[in-house]
Amino acid sequence: MGNFVFVVLASLLALTPLIFSPRSSELFEFPKLLVIYFGGALLLPLVLYKLRERKLFANRSFCLTAIALGLFMLSQAVSAFFSIDPHVSIFGYYSRFNGGLLSLVSYCVLFLASYFYLTRERVVQLLKFTWITGLFIALWGLPSHFGYDFICLFVQGKFSASCWTSGFIPQLRMFATLGQPNWFATYLLVLLPINLFLITTGLLKLNNKFDRYFKFVPYLSLILFSIELIWTNSKSGILSYIVLVSAYFFGQWLIAQKRFFTKQRPVFFLAGALLLVFLSLQIIPVLKTNLIKLTTKPDEVSSIKEKAVNSAPNEEYHITPSSDIRLIVWEGAIELGKKYPLIGTGVETFAYAYYQTRPVAHNLTSEWNFVYNKAHNELLNYLATSGFSGLGSYLLLWLAFLLPAGLVLFKKTPPEEDAATQKQYSLSYLFAMGGIFLMNFFGFSTTVTSLFTFLLPAFFLNYFNKTTLSAQNKENRVLRTVTINQLALYFVWVLFCFVYLLNYFSADHSYARGREYKQLSDFNNAYLYTQKAIDLRNEPTYLDQQAGISANLAALSQIQKQNPQVKQLTKIAKDYSRQSLKMAPENVFYYKTRAKVFYLLNLTVMDNPQLSLEYSQESIRALEKAAFLAPTDPVIPYTQASLIAQTDLPMAVALTEKALKLKPDYVEARELLKQLQN
Fold this sequence. Notes:
The chain has 678 residues and is mostly helical. The protein has two domains: 2-301 and 368-482, no CATH class; 506-633, Tetratricopeptide repeat domain (Serine Threonine Protein Phosphatase 5, Tetratricopeptide repeat, Alpha Horseshoe). The chain has helices spanning 2-18, 29-50, 60-81, 86-91, 101-117, 120-141, 150-155, 181-200, 211-214, 217-231, 235-255, 265-294, 298-301, 304-310, 322-339, 350-353, 378-410, 417-441, 447-463, 471-481, 484-519, 523-536, 540-559, 563-583, 588-602, 609-629, 635-644, 649-662, 667-677. α8 (181-200) runs parallel beside α11 (235-255), α15 (322-339) crosses α17 and α28 packs antiparallel against α29. It is globular. The model is unreliable at 258-264, 290-298, 300-316 and 469-474 (pLDDT under 50).
């Protein structure tokens, strides 16, 4: 089975960073996660089969890691069970699917399969394969910096960067096939130490006539990875690089013996020194900015609110620095953790749970109406969504991941070749894991990041596992004990998972097409595609979208005097709105949709005062619930004021003033207040 596990893991390491799909609602993360799901499904029976062997737990480092992993998974399972939205906690927030309980189980399976079935030789092969894949992706992304993106060639048939919106310009911030610049920067921070390990140990030598041409490729790839990291324009990525590269070379100096400084080594140190100087020059402006912030008084740093309040409504639009916005989001995440200290609001529920403690200062930023589905800090994200139990177990898991490498690195060993290689591997491993941790501290984990977070520790344990049998012996022993019935069950399981994931992908594709037509106000096609998605998968996101589409169609049908359709569409809109809220009763977005739905349905019954009043009251009740869930959202009181302006003028004025108190530069609310006061 070792060969099969190796092929599956190699496929995941190649496909996950590379794959994308223009047919899905999310171009990058959704198809990547489906690949990981399928890989986990392929290996789950093998892991369960192997768990019967007790001697697999003889390794002390693995036992400690397994205990930490078990505690972490337990905290996530409990948090998901008591979640304010169990569906999201299991499958992840739609559009940011990674991090749900199902994805964590998949990563856990991959970790165990890697440890149970791989050998040191296989680990080295996978590291080489990861480096080759990374080099291919880096070369893929290279033309995009100059305005020629292969993704656009696939999507539009044009070798240019014209398929991207103004928010995604690869010439300014490269992201290759990873989706966002920070995600690509994290990937590069994993590739760099792998590249360094393969160089320092000479594992990339071909030992044939092509070696004279190939020997420069690892050094060139090191430079390419570093330059592309700069081109991501990721502040956290570049700062992490400088910190980690400096620590890496300091570690080399600490553990190196005289034999390390042979004639082959100066080239390596020279390349590293040049890269460090080059990156330092790039980061000087960022360091200056951060130095100014560090030397500024705290009350001056948090002056975003004052600037917004004192600014005139017609003042030029100001883009708030992302660092300022993150501080505000972090504040809300901390308050959310205090509010739900034990198990949090539920795994991956931050997107709308954040509205409960969302600071008013967020309304005064340029991204005041953006949805923040993550805390942009992995530690605070776990604190908010799974409480101190989740955060504590997550930190314990990282300690279990890093501690064995630290012990190997600082352990006194004789100057043997294998011992030197072990120290090189430990140092590179700490570099890679440190890069992931630092990037997650200023952001959040994605599919590729999580894949490496769980695979690299398993690789490390295998590399130092002296009791590991050869892959061939393992495979022969397992195959002799597998029955035909077990193989048949395995193929049925694989087929079921494949069909399930294919169905999931098809539903998402239909949902995405429905959303596109909805944005074009083509509600007929939007309805057809969204209904197809619902027929394939009972997803609350689909139900919520279809409720809004049906209400719009009902209003249009009323205008066209198509009464039978009005009744049918009205029923569908109400049913789907009710079902979505039944599945996610704390989702503030669904209550906003419900308010719009009944506002539109009210337009279809204007000749029926009693029913019109009922629909109006239902719309107001939905907004009241939304206001309870999101007390600092200025859009809600503004919308409430708009709805009751004709029936309750004093309350409408009060609500508009509340909206302006929450957001003093709210132009629409200011104009509404003028109309109400005239």
